[in-house]
Specification:
With 202 residues, this protein is of the alpha/beta class. It is 50% helix and 14% strand.
Length: 202
Amino acid sequence: MKPSAVIFDLGKVLLDFDYSITAATLADQCDVTAEELRRHIDQSPLLIRYESGDLTTEEFYQTVREFAGYRGDYATFRDAFGGIFSEIPAMVELHHRLRSAGVPCFIFSNTNEVAIHHVERNFPFFDGFDGYVYSHLVGAMKPAAKIYEAVETLTGRNGPELLYIDDREENFLAGRDRGWQAVHHISPEETRAAVEATGLLS
């Protein structure tokens, strides 16, 4: 079956990210090393709580501030914490091709308020999606069923109507288990070939 919509993960699919950038930027204003700070925020239990919606941005910031002895202001922290992203050009181009072909495209991301505000301000392509599902707003993170259900509700589609692209195996498998057509993103070249094989770009 030819899918009727494409679901893109964000981090490591459309945008690369590196929390060591945040740590290096803030380290001079902290009582911990850059590596200690990176470990505290990079895919850590604290970040999971934030991206699950269990912590507000203010609560997350205060927790990091207390741990690190951070002496700077919030604006500096916000810009450093959000400024970790860079485009993956081949994948942004794939999205452009799908959009030009009239294929509805959606973002489906484990993420947080600061990151999304930064992406919205700095990456123009991000406006070109038909909808967005974010973990911190749903109150659940991939691969929990609740957030996949939110995608189905938003798109009005389920099963093989959805083509899903994600770099994390557990997330890709959760989509496939729901009957979605799922692509485990390893490289832009492999993902582009998988999308082309569906007939969406013919």
